[in-house]
């Protein structure tokens, strides 16, 4: 009872007025990183589709989809997405001194983990909805890839 009122007052005066601007500032790099994850997914699916349209080779398509399933673990391709979140390092330095925010690396790492998890879910869902082994008509494969891609991106 003795601590509650001063704590409420402290939060109301010293923290709450800044929350909206802090969240806006932090969401810039986070949103940018997640947008890059989405764009990478879309680019990779488009590449699979274009390759199939050129070759019409179902075996190659299956290989490309199998390789696509490893995208979340491909550090070279995922790195640009992760780098966007590294901007939080600079933004959180100011918060560290003003609000005693510690473990900045943990915040960045968890955000990057969520990005990887999102990509894992996207490629898994794509693979479940589009299985090249179930595609009998090669004329419809490119259309099916596009429909599945749009469904996953939704």
Automatic annotation (TrEMBL):
Highest rank taxon of the organism: Eukaryota
InterPro entries registered for this protein in UniProt: Niban-like, Niban_1/2/3_dom
Residues covered by the Niban 1/2/3 domain: 9-154
Pfam families: Niban2 (PF26086)
Family per similarity comment: Belongs to the Niban family.
Protein name (record): NIBAN protein
Species of the source: Piprites chloris (Wing-barred manakin)
